[in-house]
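New to this. Comment on this protein:
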Amino acid sequence: MMVQCRSFCVWQRGARAPRLLLAGILAVSCGVALGGSARAAGALAIGACGAYGFAYDYARDAEASRAALGKCAGGCKVVPLRRACGAIAIDGANACGAHGYAVAVRLGTAQNTALRQCYEYGGKDCVIRAFACDAKD
């Protein structure tokens, strides 16, 4: 049986170059080794002043939420990513100011919506802070 999974990417603003974390390329990371069920629960945690955390390819939403919250500092809230992409945009001139986030099936849509929200909430120099895409089963 052939299993295909989608790659997962995270980009961090301020990094020297975009970092790609590839997951789900091998069937084992898609959950085939765990009885054939694909892992498709992910979460993005969003906090104050550009804080964030992410988790992907978990078996259950609750596990993904806990993992994302564990990586986020400062009163974070969780946005589930079940077979979807999420993006966070912040005002680059004031990280503690306006921000926006979105979840969509396509990464570009999530990023565009997050940027639009950031500007709508008063951001002057909005940039994508982080994005994540969970695997599809």
The beta strands are 41-46, 52-58, 77-80, 85-91, 94-104, 126-133. The mean pLDDT is 75. The CA atoms of residues 4 and 36 lie 12 Å apart.
